[in-house]
Write a structure and sequence with these properties.
Helix content of chain B: 40-55%
CATH topology of chain B: Non-ribosomal Peptide Synthetase Peptidyl Carrier Protein, Chain A
CATH architecture of chain B: Orthogonal Bundle
Largest sheet of chain A: 4 strands, antiparallel
Mean pLDDT of chain B: 75
Order of helices and strands of chain A: HHHHHHEEEEEEEHHHHHHH
CATH class of the largest domain in chain A: Mainly Alpha
Number of strands of chain A: 7
Shape of chain B: globular
Largest sheet of chain B: none
Order of helices and strands of chain B: HHHH
Mean pLDDT of chain A: 93
Oligomer: heterodimer
Number of domains of chain A: 3
Number of domains of chain B: 1
Low-confidence stretches of chain A: 1-17
Number of strands of chain B: 0
Number of helices of chain A: 13
CATH superfamily of the largest domain in chain A: Butyryl-CoA Dehydrogenase, subunit A, domain 3
Chain lengths: 407, 122
């Protein structure tokens, strides 16, 4: 860090937040604001507006943007810890924050031209919220194929494109300032030859086609839309989506989703622990029978944490090497991460419910766990585990032992 | 929710194997003797591509530097392609070659296979 030229240091805004504080600041927002409104967000299926106002005030939406563009230059570890801290208070808040940061990570790692750098500076300065449109009515959950295509107009000055997509889900589309959209490279491209286009509110029009009314994760407002966009060619990320997803979107998505789920599990275990403690106080000298379930939940929580921290370490080790990032063993590691943590979060919440008994089952106690359970059930379905396992089993037909540490 | 911010799983590819059949016939006629000359190796690769690659286009029409991913090759298709290549050329792809770049064009595949054949490990 001492090598930074003096001019750069002079330009850096004095108020730029130190990345080390990211998790602590997120924890404060999660505990003090997100948690307070979590019930209303869940009940009404509404966007967690209070939490996001606070996140903007804390400048936490731009923390991943490089410092030279006015952001916090935070690491994936910092952001994962922030997702966890937010989800402890409100899972929808944590998940929206995770989804936002996944899009920012794609820009940071692959947006090299002036347009993308300007946008990153704006994300940091104006605390813009980024969303994504990867699912399509015609292809469903199969996000690695697109029907819609980028259409370029060679006549137009500077090169322009248009794009129309039946997006069956754009989470928090109403609140997004920028949306990253997958589409075929051109109208003649095969369905798997995709690119990622970055469009801002000024570039697109959204027409709502369906409303989100689901069991859990209700505050993500994952409505369906028809999106029509136009922009300059520079807005399209240059790397093919297949590479971009292998190098950044897939690993970052699974790490941040898992960290969010870990937050749900951690809060469930906290409630179970509080319940057991209150039981123990009523009958000093005896350990309540249900404390065994708490021990089980705690062991699984530790296991879940270990799996996530390992994945973050694997990502850090592979970073900067497209060969490793697009390699099969890395893809398998990141795929199994999601499957493992999505099952563990449900098991942990269930063990916490068994610990608390009726106090956890009821909706009106400090130990209520209904929302946690409903939110946790989304984990196995967001990109279905069966789809992932089927893909991994195909990969294993050709996989070899790796050469790195612990392989 | 979050079906969207989602990752990339490969492709239960749409076009799938629709195009493989006809192309396979044509290319394997040109193929035959594996290994040997460069031309023979390229023909063998084309034949495996047509049979196992699940491309959206006729493998016989591709130039050796054409981007196979633009021609519809998916990560799912790569697995079949690799198994077919191992069978055709009696080689084994080591871990470090199992990435997208290795299979990005016929020329890239040729270089990788040639390296393995010359390496003589098999």
């Amino acid at each position: 860090m001492n090598a930074a030229p003096a001019a750069l240091i002079g330009l850096a805004p004095v108020s730029a937040p130190a990345p080390v504080n990211v998790a602590a600041r997120a924890r404060a927002v999660g505990a003090e604001i997100a948690a307070r409104h979590a019930e209303a967000v869940d009940r009404d299926g509404r966007f967690p507006v209070e939490a996001f106002d606070a996140l903007r005030e804390e400048r936490l939406l731009g923390v991943m943007v490089p410092a030279e563009l006015g952001g916090g230059g935070a690491s994936l570890f910092d952001v994962a810890a922030a997702c966890h801290a937010l989800a402890r208070g409100c899972a929808a808040t944590g998940m929206i924050y995770a989804m936002h940061q996944i899009q920012v990570a794609c820009l940071v790692n692959h947006g090299t031209n002036g347009w993308h750098r300007d946008l990153m500076a704006r994300i940091a300065a104006d605390q813009l919220l980024l969303g994504s449109a990867t699912t399509e009515k015609e292809t469903g959950g199969d996000i690695r194929n697109s029907v819609c295509a980028v259409t370029t107009d060679p006549e137009a000055e500077g090169g322009r494109f248009t794009l129309a997509k039946n997006a069956s889900v754009i989470s928090y589309g109403d609140q997004s300032d920028v949306i990253l959209v997958t589409a075929r490279r051109n109208p003649d491209a095969p369905s798997s030859d995709q690119v990622l286009a970055v469009v801002t509110k000024d570039d697109y029009r959204l027409e709502k086609t369906s409303l989100w009314d689901a069991m859990g994760m209700r505050g993500t407002c994952s409505d369906g839309y028809r999106l029509e966009a136009a922009g300059v060619i520079d807005q399209i990320l240059p790397l093919p989506y297949a590479d971009l997803s292998a190098q950044t979107m897939l690993p970052v998505t699974h790490i941040l989703w898992s960290s969010t789920w870990l937050g749900i599990a951690a809060d469930a275990v906290s409630r179970a622990r509080a319940f057991v403690r209150s039981e123990a106080k009523r009958k000093p000298g005896t350990t309540p029978a249900s404390a065994v379930r708490l021990a089980e939940a705690t062991a699984k929580l530790q296991q879940m944490k270990a799996v996530i921290l390992t994945a973050i370490r694997q990502y850090e080790l592979a970073c900067g090497s497209p060969e490793q990032l697009t390699g099969l063993s890395f893809a398998t590691a990141m795929g199994t991460l999601k499957v493992t943590t999505s099952e563990l979060v449900r098991e942990i919440v269930e063990a916490a419910i068994r610990t608390c008994g009726l106090a956890g089952y009821r909706n009106d106690t400090p130990y209520s766990l209904g929302r946690h359970l409903r939110d946790a059930h989304s984990a196995a379905l967001m990109i279905g585990n069966d789809r992932i396992m089927s893909h991994i089993s195909t990969q294993l037909l050709v996989q070899r032992d790796g050469l790195g540490p612990f392989e | 929710m979050p079906q969207d911010a989602s990752p990339p799983y490969a492709n239960q590819s749409f076009q799938g194997s629709l195009s493989a059949g006809a192309a396979g016939l044509q290319a394997s006629a040109a193929g035959g003797a594996a290994g040997g000359t460069d031309d023979g190796m390229v023909a063998g690769i084309r034949s495996v591509l047509a049979e196992c690659g699940g491309l959206a286009v006729d493998a016989g029409t591709l130039a050796i530097d054409d981007d196979l991913y633009s021609a519809g090759l998916t990560s799912h298709g790569c697995v079949g392609l690799m198994l077919g290549l191992e069978e055709e050329f009696d080689v084994e792809f080591p871990e470090k070659l199992l990435n997208r770049r290795t299979f990005e064009s016929i020329a890239a595949i040729r270089d990788a296979v040639r390296g393995l054949v010359d390496g003589g490990a098999a």
